[in-house]
Amino acid sequence: MNKFPKSPLIKKAKRVYDDYLLDYILGMDSSPTYDRTEGKLMDDTKEEYSRIIRKYPNSRTAKKAKELIAAFDAHIAVDQIEDRINLRR
Fold first, then answer.
1. Which residue from 16, 49, 60, 76 could staple onto 65, CB 3.0 to 4.6 Å apart?
2. Cα separation, 15 vs 3, whole angstroms
3. Which string of b and e fits 10-22 if b means at least 16 CB within 10 Å?
4. Predicted pLDDT of residue 88
């Protein structure tokens, strides 16, 4: 998307990226990223997000991962976290 921002496929590429980002950040039923009852990130998830943040610090993915980590560290309710990081299912 960065290389070809005027591509006729850019809208579709952004939609697909957003879908994958949503699944990566908020998880799926079969692979959750956080424990809803305890309101905390899974340890392996936090490690993965930290890896992405180090490897791609200026990416949108890293930004959303930082937002999610900060929200869980601040003990914000899970339902509010999904609204705060502005990703929708």
1. 49
2. 17
3. eeeeeeeeeeebb
4. 60
Query: What is the distance between the terminal CA atoms of the chain, rounded to a whole angstrom?
Result: 22
Whether the full predicted model's pTM is greater than 0.85, yes or no, is no
CB 10 within 8 A of CB 73: no
One-character DSSP codes across 25-51: HHEETTEESEETTTTEE-HHHHHHHHH
What is the residue type of 61?
Answer: T
Structure tokens that stand for 36 in this block: 């809803």
With a CB cutoff of 8 Å and minimum separation 6, the contacts of 49 are 41, 65, 66, 68, 69
